[in-house]
Specification:
Elements: E1 8-15, E2 21-28, H1 50-59, H2 63-77, E3 83-85, H3 87-94, H4 98-110, E4 114-117, E5 124-128, H5 140-143
Antiparallel strand pairs: 1-2, 3-5, 4-5
Length: 151
Amino acid sequence: MSGAHSFFLLLVLYYCSGGCNVLVLTRSHPTRDPYKKFDGQYYLSGTVPLLWLVAADEAGGTAYKVGLLLWHLKGLKKTPENLAVTRKVAWDRLKIGRMALTRGLDRLEAAKLITTTRGRGKAIRVTILPACSAGACNTPLADAGMPLEGQ
C-alpha cells in the first residue's frame, strides 16, 4: 500500500485445532475521528421525532440547539439513555457555551423531554424521553394526522 492511503488491512490467519483455516480481515484507521464521516463533518444519525423537536423549540432559549446536540450524541451512542454531555463536546460541536448548555438542559428538563443526573466535577448524564411524555402529542402537528411515535 502507498503512504497516501490511510487505511491499513490487517490479514490474520487463525488455525483451529482441527486444522481448519479461518481468514479474518479487519480495517483500522489510527488517525480518523470515529465520530466524523469521511468528509470531516458531524451528522445527526437515526430518526429524530419531529414532535420532540417542536416541543424543544417551544421550550425556548437554547433548548432547541441543546436538543440537537443530544440527538447527535444519541446517534453516536446508539441509545437514548445515560448520554454524557460535557462542556467540551457542546462547544466543539455546536458552539454552545457553559451557561447556555446549563440553561438549555434546564428548559428541556422542565418541558419533560429529558431527565438529568448531575454531580460535582462529573459530566451531566442525560436520558432522552419520548415527546408524548411531555404532552407534545396534543399539539396541532399531532392533530394534523402525522403518525406518532410507536404507531
